[in-house]
Amino acid sequence: MSLLIVGSIALDSIENHQGSVNDVLGGSAIYASISASRLCDDVAIVGVVGKDFPKEHIEFLEKHGVNTYAIFFNEGLTFRWRGRYNNLNQAITLETSLNVFENFDPVIPEDLQDSSFILLGNIDPEIQLNIIKQMKKPALIAADTMNYWIIKKIDALLEMLKHIDILFINNEEIKLLAQKHYLYDAYQKALNYGPDILVVKKGEHGVMVVKKDSYFFTPGYPLEKVIDTTGAGDCFSGGFMGYVASQGKINDHILKQAAIIGTISSAFNIESFSVDSLTKITHDHIMKRFEDMKKYTQFD
Amino acid sequence: MSLLIVGSIALDSIENHQGSVNDVLGGSAIYASISASRLCDDVAIVGVVGKDFPKEHIEFLEKHGVNTYAIFFNEGLTFRWRGRYNNLNQAITLETSLNVFENFDPVIPEDLQDSSFILLGNIDPEIQLNIIKQMKKPALIAADTMNYWIIKKIDALLEMLKHIDILFINNEEIKLLAQKHYLYDAYQKALNYGPDILVVKKGEHGVMVVKKDSYFFTPGYPLEKVIDTTGAGDCFSGGFMGYVASQGKINDHILKQAAIIGTISSAFNIESFSVDSLTKITHDHIMKRFEDMKKYTQFD
Known about the structure:
homodimer, alpha/beta, UDP-N-acetylmuramoyl-L-alanine:D-glutamate ligase, nine-stranded mixed beta sheet, 10 helices
């Protein structure tokens, strides 16, 4: 079924232990949509770029199965981010130029208002709410957020949480959101805000899925080499939601598989800069690692 | 089969968010042996205490199935450690008094030289080697170490590694030991030093078992409340080795189960100060959580 992904589209410049790249395709909506399109054949992206955005990137996205119909070309420059990694996992932001992304508050085209599955990237919760209101019959809505919005826009965030089914978050953010010292208490309180499912991202340590009365854990997929971790979290969310949309529904069985497949998608992503390695994989590559993950975690 | 555990015996004083305790039973050999004795009925401890060590503690250990025959009472005071936790996982050492532990270099009593399974706590690798040399027919030797010995006694440590089957370590330590930037490379190099199995302890994120050609991951067992994490790593090792000794051998099946059971033992431990909660549990409590762990990790 159809998956709509809303978030940032950026041109990233990255320096790390592997070298450096300039103005490569990035942003949460890009990473998530390429990741989702490995699993789901009806993925559309909503975002904004400037007139300087290379047309090849649009062709590239279309070629990889992402509907770009709702990428808006506005006057001005595309969102740019420049960062440096001094270790594998934590980037220092050297420069952020929001440019056209600063006033991003999209009107969803009418045919995309019928999308069944919605993934809202980490943007202003007021904008997330505006998008939710435009959707006509969503089967499932998932959203990402971060410390910045928890601190700056807690009221809008709490309102937004009432309308979603799945929240992507990390342990520091959930404690801040719930104002609780113990994670268990924070999870329970956050589940009372609205979402039925918390997907707690733990970086290299994998992911934990929390519901009112259950847990599910997946480790990170072990890799020999890490090239660039930019976008890893978004590739997780994209792979997760791409798989859920491909199944057309969610239940405990699909939820666990989605967590595994999101983790695998994220691992493919960090084996290159930008989305290069993700675009080279097929469904079979993912399923090969899915079988590996069974070996790495199953016991009796 | 018989399990011999060598390490520190201490009187700990701890301050944390839950309160404080003074001169409670602690030390790596204590935590590991109590943990192991939940699973294995032939556990002996080798350690040293001062004349001030309360006789009740000896009775307590014996009552809980730990053979205390090789706890040596030396002139002087028992090893004492005083620490404060400002968060749940990281203690600041306020005071360490090695006392009688400073010159710990035990002569293993003859009947214990026949022990089949050996767990060497985190002590000077020269002492670990001296102990290994005294063992007559060990089926399996496991050892713990830490940054301090990697920096101060690398030659003795590398020699010790030639004689063991399992190394308990964490990711920072393994990178330091192997002098490798990537964990994958560090694991491969460390496996070439001698041990067939690395058990990588990741605190709240659980444990990873690494062999030349395989991985196994277990998450931490999720808890509602954390009381005191002191000794958690030793309770993991003790539970792990107690289970292996109870099976009388190791293979991939037993290895995975041991990692799960070690993780569960560690979780019971952090639900109280000292070894209080561990001594209240039975084999059935462990197996209940073993079934939980299946639900938390199994998918298809």
